[in-house]
Amino acid sequence: xxxxxxxxxxxxxxxxxxxxxxxxxxxxxxxxxxxxxxxxxxxxxxxxxxxxxxxxxxxxxxxxxxxxxxxxxxxxxxxxxxxxxxxxxxxxxxxxxxxxxxxxxxxxxxxxxxxxxxxxxxxxxxxxxxxxxxxxxx
Length: 138
What we know:
alpha/beta, Trna Endonuclease, Chain: A, domain 1
């Protein structure tokens, strides 16, 4: 298995605080003979539903030397994982988990809005120090 992102535990704890049950840590997918791992799987039951909402969450730290390089890698990984999830676990929605500061610096402007819409990227914005979900962006 690959190494965990430095914010993995913060996102895991934030999801739990937000009422989610962690179902997979990580979610194992297959690409031919290769293994892929989405960081977290979670489920939340709403009201009288028998089956709740299921999500997959890929955590990205954006701490590299280039924010654009980090963005390219994160989106490439997101698209790959989303494609595999559609076929192997179609009940799950994939989210990219990023810190508040990353959202403000990289994703909170019109160019990013267009990119998120074009590529159907869903975001989970979290506060790392408080280990809390701040915002869901669909």
